[in-house]
Amino acid sequence: MTTPKISRSGYGHLVIIGGGEDREDDMRILSRFVELSGGPQAHIVVITGASEIPHEVWDVYDRAFATLGVQRREAVHLSNRAQANDPALAELVGAASGIFMSGGDQRRLLAIVGGTLLDEAMHRALKQRGACIGGTSAGASAMSGHMLAEGYVELLPALGSVQLAAGLGFLQRVVIDQHFSQRRRLVRLLTVVAQNPYLQGIGIDEDTALVVECGGGIEVIGRGAVTIVDGRHMISNVTELADRACPQLVDVRLHLLPAGSRFKVNPDGGAETDEAPAPLLDILRSLVRRNSLD
Amino acid sequence: MTTPKISRSGYGHLVIIGGGEDREDDMRILSRFVELSGGPQAHIVVITGASEIPHEVWDVYDRAFATLGVQRREAVHLSNRAQANDPALAELVGAASGIFMSGGDQRRLLAIVGGTLLDEAMHRALKQRGACIGGTSAGASAMSGHMLAEGYVELLPALGSVQLAAGLGFLQRVVIDQHFSQRRRLVRLLTVVAQNPYLQGIGIDEDTALVVECGGGIEVIGRGAVTIVDGRHMISNVTELADRACPQLVDVRLHLLPAGSRFKVNPDGGAETDEAPAPLLDILRSLVRRNSLD
Question: What's the whole-model pTM score?
């Protein structure tokens, strides 16, 4: 039996969840993940590599996806890179129609998965077979090429207090933060963008997801919002400051997209079927752009 | 004895404090207030009208200003409009070189002072005699023409959840919030700006002040920062939403000015002695513009 090809474009979806998604009641976000993975016919694998309690985590998602009617569910527990380089496991993951990455610690996940056969298999599943890749909390942070690894910022941005690392790279030119409004992380994201204006910051609230249809558009679902911090026009004094200093930041552009926000986007520009407001357009185009396998 | 004329331009300063300014140790902000009021020669009145514990409040500032070497210190306790319309009291306040408004509740302060002889006397002191007007917490909020009166917003902007009222109008086109980073009020200020893009939001941290030299420039002093939220370029859907809904906001411009930020500004444009980055320029010009007595 072959898993269904979800996306007509051959390219799949990303469901980037800010953590704390409902797993028992309305399951709005997990339902969408299942739908984008092919509905009840989906073949879903749950990668628990970010977590130190993978079996508990798997139990929760196993139950949730079963409730949502998915028959083919598999856990992928990982504790070292050798497992992530196992060709059989990579083949299993590469054949799935839905790949879900749990919460935990994104550094742990990348230390195990980054650059392995499993990593490649996920990219191939997304880009060649139209699979859906979901990730929550750490699993969301892990999706971008530049990954917010760790860092606590109290009340004001503080240079050098947030560390980036290499993520899975399903998205480029962004950095993703999660539990965003709940943990008051705008200041942390501002700190990242102040030092890395190349990256647009994307903050995703709990029980909220940014759904990216590669080549097609984006949508925000759930009960919160997605905040985008764009520092490309920013004027700052970061180069003149010592570590931990609070930078002067002028003209940071902020976008707040509550659940229900939805934009079709043509990644190549051209014919104007785009519905997005102009200041969002190039950010959204970049989000939905299909990046190559390499 | 006449009180010294502070500002050579005939126009004075505003010291807008986000609350919680140090009153015992370094007193960085109160020192500056004293300095801008004429130093040890200053004649300072403290208006406690916002507070329900005016005598306790006065004790604190009486002690602080005494420590800072000011001999002529007077409390102006107000509990009703008749007092604020007393010509003798208005004359006292109008003759002061420094007028300080305490914290408390800005609605109480305005209910007592708004539109009275005392209100007029404060404007005259600032604009004709170069007095310095300071205000902390409620006394800071009260300074703008549109005053943030009350409103609690939890994690996301919520339409209709913040109320504005009429303030003293030393500044126009802005709305001031205080205890800004400490009480995580960016979301509240975004709510105001989303519905009132005419106003630029100014959030001032605790133990931090925005010093406005009318006609000359601005400076941020203390230990925190001033956040400016500019919604003039914003694209939003506020007109389509029900009360309490979270709006979609695109292209809100954010400026973060930590203590030490200082810009000379020529309010009339013209000769470019301005040091401010372009995206800040018209906001700062508006802040330092001398508004007329009427």
Answer: 0.93
